Structures are given as structure tokens and as C-alpha cells.
Amino acid sequence: MPFTVPAELEAEIDERITHYPVSKRSAVLPVLHHLQHHFGYIGEEAVEWTAAKLGLEPIKVLEVVTFYPGFRQEAPGKYHIRVCRTLSCAMAGSYELMESICEKTGIDRSGVNHHHPIAVSLDGKYSIEFAECLASCGFGPVCMVNDDFHESVADADALLKQYP
Amino acid sequence: MSEPTKTDLVDVQIDGVWHQFPKGTRLIEACRQVGVEVPHYCYHPKLTSPGNCRMCLVETGMPPRPMPGAEPPQPDESGHLPISWIPRPVIACANTVAPNMGVRTTGPITEGCRQGVMELLLANHPLDCPICDQAGECTLQEYSVEHGKGESRFREQKVKKPKNVEVGPRVRLDDERCIMCSRCIRFTDEIADDPVLGFTDRGSHTVLAVYPGRELANNYSLNTVDICPVGALTSNDFRFQMRVWFMRETQTIDTNCATGCNITVFSRQNRIYRIVPRQNNDVNSDWMPDSHRLNFHWIDSEARLTDPMLKVDGVHRTATWNEALSVAAERLASLSGSEIAVIASARMTNEELFMTSRLVKLLGAGHVETVPRQGEADGYLVSADRNPNTNGVKLVLGLENPGSTLDRVKSGIEQGRIKALIVLQENLVDDAGFSPELLGKLDFLLATYPIANPTTGLADVVLPGACWAEKSGTMINVTGRLQRLNKAVDGPGQTREPWEIVRDLVHALGGGNGIYSVTEVFKQLAAEVPEFKGLSWGQIGDLGLPLIETGETIPALEREKERKAAGIIVG
Lengths: 164, 571
Known about the structure:
The complex is a heterodimer of chains A (164) and B (571). Chain A is of the alpha+beta class and 164 residues long. Helices cover 41% and strands 12% of the residues of chain A. Chain A is built from seven helices and five strands; from the N terminus they run H-H-H-H-E-H-H-E-E-E-E-H. Chain B folds into three domains: 6-66 and 75-106, Ubiquitin-like (UB roll) (Roll); 156-300, Alpha-Beta Plaits, CATH 3.30.70.20; 309-556, 3-Layer(aba) Sandwich (Rossmann fold), CATH 3.40.50.740. Chains A and B meet through helix 4 of A and strand 9 of B.
């Protein structure tokens, strides 16, 4: 599928850029957020589109994309699950939760590494990655599914049932 | 720029001694000016200062500020206020001097900082010094000796990063050796205007990277190798060729264009291994183009002329210098001056051109000319004039518009008016559009050149003339600066320096006193050519001196001056 930014989205982005009159480079983050929100991830074309939009070299945008784990460089599934693995959640069972979700959704995480943190189920419905602290340390394990926040997740089945 | 007035100076104590510096001086430069070295990796005076390596941390202090109502501090007998030292160290590269400031570059705080920075930099460094090209000129090595702990507490696995990465056609990257100083990134952003480098995956896996599909290919890419303080960026041309400590350094100038970049030639046992730019803030700053830097491999070419040669019955045979010179003198003496033309080269030194003018006078030669070499200026350091000494030709040989009358030489040969041609260090067939048929009409052709070429192939007398790296002399660059060329290696076989060849020709023709060194030629030149009046060889120095006003400027240098004036760089 060719990368095209819909006119509406572009208008929204153009408006956002006006909030950064001193240096367009400062608008890299908000532009990337808009693009990830729309496309689900920041691919090579999105990096180059952003660079062209802001008059920057693509490497300057790639620097930002690769710095923030919140920016995904690979396409997620329909439901993207982020499981917290910081101390409290790890102690409360986030690794078990990860395993259990993977087992139930058929996600294979063997290919996951520093450069490819996301694993996607074969049917493309679910994708998963570990995240650092999601700021609810008293109620681990914690995870996010797309923009929904879930605390004290004990049962993977019950969680997945909400996202058919 | 005017000298700073008294009020622009501030008192600063460095390692216990009070000095005065202009306001705005960076601490690192203030220390350098008084002979105190502050170790640093990321700081480079020609680039912006991001302050990211932390190696230049120093301890500073200011006069104590009294509590409200308390007595203000009193000056001591030397007239200076006491210093209250601040426990938090600051980076010397980005902080500037302040009145009554104290700086300590020794002591437990500074030394502890340096040891800490070194230990962390080495934690993930591969320590592959035995096979690293930077070994011997690596600041990581140097500072390890001076400021390191001598041991590491790091027992864990080192981070693995990309190695042997082709970042461009001439530059290779080892990310594990990189200490993330960002000098190369800033160079490509600020100087070369080709910002293709950046840091990706910032964190414990930070890597220097080129954007996928792009490459560091601009004509200044090898300067990143020079400014890399470690062995992360290496030159494809030089890597694994020679350990740096075996090589001899010769300070000389580049002859690929009229800019005359100052360079250092690294050689060992008469062979050149690499050329790097040498700082001259009036010519090339700290940089030079790749195209110029790499144009030296032909010096070792198999096609080098090594002996004088005479053409007998259409075939060249080697001859002794005496034999070749006497044949040349005999043939030339049999002709009248108006039948002889001399084609010199704007690649020749002033001394060579001076001897050539003697030869021209002695022969009464009817025509003297040089071959022009026009290219395109690149807006940085490459001049449109690809001859290094056009200004020397104008001054010493007295040609007003060098190269403009070559057609008259051609028609002179065509019409039989010119019967003999003396070609000094030029290849007329390939570089000046003289056809072999045209040169065939001559009664006598003498050619000197470093390498066998179609012109020497046609010559009755061929004399091996040393190339730029094999001779000494002076040249005048595009801005009118007189600079010295120093001999780095010996020419092959019987090669002689062109000034010697012309001198020998003059002798063989029966004129002139003995001149035995190029400095003697310069002395005579200085006595005869008004612009050189009063100059001595030694005065020119390693950085040259302004000789004439040409009204020309070097674009990269002009931009650097602007950046310095704007306070963006130290300069």
C-alpha cells in the first residue's frame, strides 16, 4: 500500500507545526505522534515524509524515532498490547502474563530483540511488546491495549475477551 | 580586529596563577593559551560545542558572596579576591571566563572526573588497539595513559554494535570504537552541508549511523576521519596500510588547485602512505577535499620516468644526464631564439619559474607560455584554477594572462616559425590540445615530466622531472599567499627537481654561475622580482605569508570567519 497522508491529517499536522514558530525541528515529536496515531507505526516513508515536511534531513527524524520506545517502527496488530516489565509489575507476574497472552494468541516472540521489540500474531489481530513503567506500580501486573489501561491483570483470557 | 582594551580583560586564576583573558574566552582556550592542556574529545574549535563527552570537566571557583550584612571579601596582598571553590565541576569547552574566577585542572575533583569518564568510555570499548589504525594517534589511548585509572571494574558483557560499516565510498565505521563525541555529525552538518550522519538508538546501544540508503559521499568525507578522536571512522584508502608511528611527517602544501591547502605528507622508506590537512586558518582551516588528498598513488606508478632518454632513430634509449643535456644544448644552440618556444607549467614553483625565465632570456626564446587548467570551483576549498601557482607565473615569469597565447604557439609550429619546443612539466598532447601530428612538425622537442605520456613519447630529449612531493620551492595561492612546498620523498631513479633541470640546461648552454640549492634560487628571485623584495626562505615559515593582493577569497574560510564573528565557534 503506498504511503499517503490524507488531506485532513496533513491539515491537522500543518496546524500543529504553526505552534513551533522558532524551530520547525521542535515539531518532529508532535508530527510523529500524529502519524503513528493514524498509521499505527512510523515506517521509513513516514520518517521521510516528516523530514520533507519540516525541511530536515531524514537522519534527524530517525534519531528521534529510534530514541523513543513509544514510537513503533514496525506495524502492530489490530490490538497492540504493551505489558509493563518494570520492577513492581515484574514481581507481580508480568513475565507470566506475557507468556500467557502469547500462548493464547499464538504470538511467537522468538524473533524479538532490541531492534525488533514487537511480535505480531499470525492473523495480525494481536501484537505485543514489553514496556517500561506504565505508572501504576501498586496494581501490577499492568498493561495497555491500544489506549486502554488495565491494572492487576491476572487472567489473560478475560483480558483478550474484551478485544475480539 | 582591534586589540582588546583593558576593560575587556578579566582576571582568572588557572592552577594557582593569575592571568588576564578577553571576556567570552572559553575556559578550555584560556587554559590552552597559558600552556595548560585540558583533555577533551567532543570539543573542536571549528565546530559548535555540544559538551557531551565530559572529558574537559574542571573545578572552578568564584569569590565568596557574603551573607546580607556580612563583610565583603577583601583582596589579598596581590590584589586578588579569595576564591571559594565550587564542589560541582563544569565543562571547560562551553563555559567562559568570569571576573575573579578560579580554575583548577588538577586535584582530586578534576582527576576523579577524568578517571570516571575514561572508565566509562572504555567499559564498552573493544580495546582492539593492536589492529586499530588510530593506534598511536588515538586520544583514547593518550588520555588512558595520562588520566585513566589503569584498570576497569567492568566485568559484564560489552555491548555489541555494528562493525566494518561502509558509511560512504571512502569512509568505514566501527561503531564499537565510537565514543559518541559527535564531531563527525557536526562536521557534516556545519561544514560540509551534507547532514547524513546521526545517532540512532540512543541509550546503551547508541550507534553512529547514516540514513538507510544514503551515504557519506561528499568530497570532504575524509575530514571526519581526521577529526574522529578514536578509531571509529577510518579511511578505506589508508586502513591497515601502515602503523602511524613508523611514518615520517613532512609539512608541505597541496598542488591540486590554486587554494594550496596546507598538508602533512606521511611517508615511510620513500613511499607516501597518506596525506592529511594541516591547520592554516588563512588557507584551508583544518580541512581538505578528498579528491586532492587521495591524488598521490600515481607517484608510485610503474610509468614513472626514471632516467633521461634520447630518441635515436625513432627509438628512446636511456642516457646520462650529461649526455642528454649536451645533446639538448647542442640542438638548441643551432637554432635562433625566435624559433624556440618554452612551455612552462603553472604547477612549477616560483624557483623553477625563475630558472625558466633565465633560460628564456639566455635562449632569447620567442615565446613562453603555460598551460591553463580551469575547472569548477566547489564553493568550499576547491578553486576553479586547478593550477597551484598561476600567480607565480604572473609574477615570476611575467605572463599577464597565462595560457592565453597557446594557440599562437600552435600556429607557430604549424607555420614552421617555431622549430623547437621546450616543455617543462606539462603534457601538451593530453592537457593542452597539441596533436601528435603538430608536435611531429618540430625539429626538436624536449620534455620533462614525472610520468611517461604521449608528449614525452614524441620528445627527442626526455628528462625525468620530480613531482610535487619530491621537490621544494614556493608557490603563490589564489589569495596571493606565498607558501612553501617541502620535499617529502626522493624521486625515483635519476629524477631531478625541475629547478635543477632548468639550471643544468642553462649551464649546458654556457650561461650563469652555479646554484646549488633551491634556497639560493629563492635568494636570487627575491633580489630580482620586486614583490619578493626583502623576503628570506625562513621568513615564509610553515604557514606562509601574504605576498600580493588578488581580491580572491576562499569560500569555506569566509564562512568560518562569519561563524567565528557570530560566536558560534571559537575558530
